[in-house]
Amino acid sequence: xxxxxxxxxxTTPTIGAEIFGVDLSQQLSNRQFDEIHxxxxxxxxxxxxxxxxxxxxxxxxxxRFGKLHVHPNAPKGLPNHPEILVIKADENSKxxxxxxxxxxxxxxxxxxxxxxxxxxxxxxxxxxxxxxxxMYEAYESxxxxxxxxxxxxxxxxxxxxxxSDRKPGEGSDMQFPRxxxxxxxxxxxxxxxxxxxxxxxxxxxxxxxxxESDALLSFLFQHIETxxxxxxxxxxxxxxxxxxxxxxxxxxxxxxxxxxxYGHRVTICGDKPFGVAGRTSNASLAAS
Length: 288
Fold this sequence. Notes:
The protein contains six helices and 16 strands. The longest helix is centred in the C-terminal third of the chain and has 15 residues, at 210-224. The chain is α+β, with helices and mostly antiparallel strands.
């Protein structure tokens, strides 16, 4: 079906598209909103160039897609805007968030539906790209016997795996969730199966012995990182990436030290993952 209010140019045949002909600082018409949503569902991650957004305008754009999520343990970079996650690195950074392939906050009971990252400052000599990978294809490209086995498994997603360096201080409201989710998730909007384990948060498969779980997860993580499943987005100043957190994983490339990269991310609340035959995880293992 053709688009009427936006132009969509695919980044690769597998994942990603750039969107032209829309100013995200302005109120979207219902038709524009529907077409941007359709482009996201079809391409898993969509990109916008040359956008000029205030914090309030970025939040308003995200809120068209759902309630905004507040990260459970991230530092509060903008105290009056808890929905804004500040993404930054400079000469003092030893690492950056998201260097491992991951789905944002998959450790939550209801992991986010999507994330919208607005980069306002980029390294002067390049670098700082973001990789995105297609989790439908990650699942569908596995052999049938392996797909059948994975369909019935669940895995633990633990915030401490990704954020063990974030120690809560006295009186802190930081939380470190830990939940069990299906290894194969059914997308709530498209109905398609996808692989839902990630190197950033997933620690073990519940139904397997530890050695078996480690071996299988190691294989799946490497499989997810296969180049043919991915696209690579080269940031420019005032660019935006909007990804479906359910069907895409991403990885931040930290190759620009000691230069600075800065932006804001809003994240949209999602729902509890369900697997084959509508089954959700067997247990909730929240930890603080």
